[in-house]
Amino acid sequence: xxxxxLAALIAVLTACSQTSAQQAKRPAPADTVATxxxxxITLAEVDDKALEQPVSNFGxxxxxxxxxxxxxxxxxxxxxxxxxxDAAKAxxxxxxxxxxxxxxxxxxxxxxADVATWYQANQGxxxxxxxxxxxxxxxxxxxxxxxxxxxxxxxxxxxxxxTVTVLLDPPxxxxxxxxxxxxxxxxxxxxxxxxxxxxEQRKRRP
Length: 206
Description:
Layout lengths: L5 H13 L13 E5 L2 E4 H8 L12 H29 L3 H8 L9 H10 L1 H4 L4 H31 L2 E3 L27 H11 L2
Antiparallel strand pairs: 1-2, 1-3
Helix pairs in contact: 2-3, 3-4, 5-7
């Protein structure tokens, strides 16, 4: 069975939303779903970015949840890119120069000891591969992990200086309402006996 592509997923969700009059209004492609310093980001921009992600990223999530997660991840990337672009413009330097200065240069180098420690802690994942064989992939992985951490911290500092508003709402979960009649008592309760009913009626007489 072929996996449903994210493009088809978005089409299915859009079609379904048009047939449900009871659901909240779905945002249109031209609708603003976030602002960065007053500059808008539209749903169309988010979907263009979201379509780059493989469906396997979302496991067994429901279609509506997978679509939201794809859009939210794409939106986070667009917001981060917009913040970096604005910061570079404010400093009068190129985007690449800003990234080198604020992110790449701040990443702590991965030492041989770091590689060995990670190797010892994750041998089960390496299927018995010798250290010399996986040393460089481990070093690249740890470097990328550290760079992502520094980037996240830098983006957070930019967010603290800039008004960022996210208007993309998560899908609403339908909750089944369970009703019961107070006069009938809880489900599964034993029926009242005729004697008990008669006693209750006598109590109510003046």
